[in-house]
């Protein structure tokens, strides 16, 4: 059972104004019966993702993890995603209620089904999400510089790790600086900045294509005196250079997603601090 909050409020007002409702108990919900699986699918439809994969989580696992979710509250003071009470609620086999009595006594009927009700409820959520992606309070040029700087920092982290693990070697050695500044900072930083309002899928695809193009330049030897050589069989035992290029292009897509995630988190922190002042 489900009900849109606007319909629920209308039903409560109608009950309060009706003499027939005095001393009575009513179920205010939409008449449609939905299963747990249908609820998940309806959420996907309301969020514009009707083909999302539905993964069943065992009830015992939900109940086992709920206490740990509550424990997290004592570390970050954020509302738990799941509680023991909520776990008992969502693991019930059936939740059925008949709203016909409300219709009979004071003419109330839920107007919106679950999908339509959720679409209306999600309007503020999507508006906030769009605002966070746009980072409208930031000056455009300054925001781009921030992307460049954060991309530079993340690039340094990535190349430091790969160098420590001896995945590949740059020739000449200072090519690592070029890759960090040009590829990670300028190229991927600018791409992440330009794509921040686009879908995650598009960001990932553009990142993969860009990283693949950079790797292809190295494989083709377009700049024969400036390159990087991989340790034999890295990664995953791959020796074919084009297969390696395809595999190593994937982190490029992930890099743009991570960069935008970091920037969004920084922006949210800034907004929170501004609200506290």
Helix content: 55-70%
The total of helices stands at 11
What's the mean pLDDT score? 90
What separation lies between the terminal Cα atoms? Answer: 42 Å
With strands numbered from the N-terminus, the spatial order across the biggest sheet is: 1-2
Rg, rounded, reads 27 Å
Largest sheet: 2 strands, antiparallel
Number of strands: 2
What does it look like?
The chain has 277 residues and is mainly α. The protein folds into two domains: 118 residues, no CATH class; 147 residues, no CATH class. The chain is built from eleven helices and two strands. It has a two-stranded antiparallel sheet. The protein starts with a helix and ends with a helix. The model has no long low-confidence stretch (mean pLDDT 90).
Summed up:
With 277 residues, the protein is mostly helical.
Question: Could you give the topology of this structure?
Answer:
Elements lengths: L4 H13 L18 H11 L12 H18 L7 H7 L9 H7 L7 H8 L1 H12 L5 H25 L3 E4 L3 H21 L4 H21 L6 E4 L10 H36 L1
Antiparallel strand pairs: 1-2
Spell out the key features of this protein.
single chain, 277 residues, mainly alpha, 2 domains, two-stranded antiparallel sheet, 2 strands, 65% helix
